[in-house]
Amino acid sequence: MQGETSEFRPPRWLRNPHVQTILASRFFLPPVPEVTNERLELADGDFLDLAHAEPEGAARATVCLFHGLAGCVSSAYVRGAIGTLTRAGYRVTLMHWRGCSGEPNRVARSYHSGATDDVQRIGELMRERYPQQKVAAVGWSLGGNALLVHLGRAGESTPFDAALSVCPPLVLSVGADKLASGFTRVYQRYLITRMRAQHELKRQTYPELDLPPAGPDLDTFWKFDDVLTAPLHGFKDVHDYYEQCSARRWLSDIRRPTHILSALDDPFFTPEILPLADEMAAGTSLEVARHGGHVGFIGARGEGDLPSDTDSGSRRWLDQRVVTIIEQLLI
What we know:
CATH class: Alpha Beta
Largest sheet: 8 strands, mixed
Radius of gyration: 19 Å
CATH topology: Rossmann fold
Number of domains: 1
Low-confidence stretches: 306-311
Order of helices and strands: HEEEHEHEHEHHHHEEHH
CATH architecture: 3-Layer(aba) Sandwich
Distance between the termini: 28 Å
Shape: globular
Strand content: 5-15%
Mean pLDDT: 94
Number of strands: 8
Helix content: 25-40%
């Protein structure tokens, strides 16, 4: 396990991990960005919904974004990153995971922490469209884990030149255990409720898929992933899924400059998920903050990208950190 290495230092009143997590997602919100939507039809009969944003001038590079569990283009961290990246001159494309754009996807599978085929597909698409430019990737939470798994599996064949993973689970079983205990069960209940609702809407929309029900008994990630996620995506059971798709096991195989940003007080995990230096590839770096919660990193006024008179944006340290890291990785 790694110790604290980040320069992020929130004010004393912002050092509670739940305060960080909730304020960042619900209260200190960045502006809604202007995006252009695109539906990408897939060979398996399904689709991926993309959201594109362009800088004012010529783009320096393209950055692909992969949101977390039950997230979308409206998620605060996505909005913040689109804003800071486009203002810094980057073209941005967010990939909605299957079923997360507001409309159920058409096939039985959806997405999970190791859905690397869609990550690869979007990277290759951006590489084809902008062959003269570098392509980077940023993922948060589940999206950050899937991005790392892709990088490890793909090795030299990845379409990305660099990547940033923010608060990835890294060891899925540890996260499932943590979210089933104490106050963090509040997050589990919220996420599982949304996931069950998405699944049931899909069952009603496409009855011909004959999907199993997502009943109220599936009230933990262990149960949900064992009954639905694992069998629908080709895994033997939840243990097989968690083993194959925990990003920590893939870190030594990454062959592109990669940065991982985590917080020791992340309420979704425990510090034991963090890798040792010898578990990571030479080009992979780990930044660990003592505080920050889960995809929080709300700092003192003025540490964010927006002017100091815009309190929400001025405190969002993470959004500006995304730009700084991408710039460093693409040098």
